[in-house]
Design goal:
single chain; 6-stranded parallel beta sheet; 13 helices; 293 residues; binds NADP nicotinamide-adenine-dinucleotide phosphate; 13% strand; 3-stranded mixed beta sheet; alpha/beta
């Protein structure tokens, strides 16, 4: 199929090659063109605007930072909506507020096109391994049309419900993930303070029933010298999702006290100047609070 892809950051750069490997023709755009260079070399076509991408595609994807960025690439001057064909489908994979996603979907409906929210659960590690999970919100028939294409990105594709509900679900999933990783730091720091070596504590947790895929690939980062130079998700990117959870909790009247705690730990990372790291760095905050070097 002729696919379009807008947003070639950490996630987009990994998803596009998978779509091309599956035999699709991909036309892409990114605000900073330099990030597209390796993909162009690998066969991706370049368009000068998101509109240009949409004009050449049956299905257009986007994955950008936040709702402001989605509005800009989807609805801004030369945005996707101005180039998309009637009956064509726009799938936004960014993690954004459900109501923002619904508002953008309304604009696509007015243009005779269909928008689905399609946030993805998984880090660059999971995406590279072809194991990401994709949640879809929006029209069921459109979902059935795009499903074979989505399966090229990851084997777990699920329709959650109507527009915005996949974003709603993704925020809930990330609340769980974030609390789990932050609590992991708390647990390791507690074990260390009592005299257990960090590597031993890590190994014991990863062999226990509390182990999980995210702890499996992130846990080793907290070992001496193992923190990746390019974080899978840094403190700012991950904290965005806790702020989404806090806002949703307030708006819906559903308490999220653990989101508040995880968010405060991200503030502490910021205060200590370690926020350029992957957010598993919260472990260091616990160590410092507990008087460990
Ligand atoms: N990293 C993860 O583990 C992960 C996992 C699942 C979901 N997500 C979600 O996926 C989305 C993207 O994450 P990422 O890790 O790919 O982030 P990233 O590496 O920081 O890339 C962000 C992308 O958004 C673009 N962008 C930001 N503001 C823009 C604007 N105003 N107009 C146009 N483009 C703009 C950036 O363009 P430039 O290159 O020009 O800056 C870049 O392409 C986020 O919503 C994130 O929450 C991330």
């Amino acid at each position: 199929m002729k696919l379009g892809f807008v947003g070639l950051g950490a996630m987009g750069q990994l998803i596009v090659p998978q779509l091309m490997t599956a035999g699709h023709q991909v036309t892409g755009w990114n605000r900073s063109r330099d990030k597209a260079a390796p993909l162009i070399k690998a066969g991706m076509r370049w368009a000068d605007t998101p509109r240009g991408v949409a004009e050449q595609s049956e299905i257009v994807f986007s994955i950008v930072t936040d709702a402001k960025a989605v509005r800009s690439v989807a609805l801004g001057p030369d945005g996707i909506v101005s180039g998309i064909g009637k009956g064509c489908i726009f799938i936004d994979m960014s993690t954004i507020e459900p109501e923002e996603s619904r508002a953008v979907a309304e604009e696509f409906e007015k243009a005779g096109a269909i928008m689905l929210d399609g946030p993805l659960s998984g880090s660059p590690v999971t995406v590279k391994a072809g194991n990401a999970s994709i949640m879809i919100g929006g029209d069921e028939e459109a979902y059935e049309r795009v499903k074979p294409v989505l399966l090229a990105i990851g084997p777990k594709v699920t329709r959650i419900g109507g527009n915005g509900l996949a974003c709603q679900m993704k925020i809930a999933v990330n609340l769980l993930l974030m609390v789990e990783v932050v609590c992991f730091g708390e647990a390791v720091a507690l074990a260390e303070k009592g005299g257990v070596e960090r590597a031993v504590a890590l190994d014991a947790i990863l062999k226990s029933v509390a182990a999980s895929p995210v702890l499996g690939y992130r846990g080793p980062f907290i070992l001496e010298g193992n923190m990746p130079k390019v974080p899978l998700a840094d403190v700012t990117l991950q904290q965005k999702d806790m702020l989404l959870a806090l806002n949703l909790g307030r708006r819906l009247g559903s308490p999220v006290p653990l989101a508040a705690a995880a968010n405060e730990m991200m503030n502490a990372c910021r205060g200590l100047g370690i926020d350029a790291n992957d957010f598993v760095v919260a472990h260091q905050v616990y160590r410092r609070l507990g008087g460990q070097a």
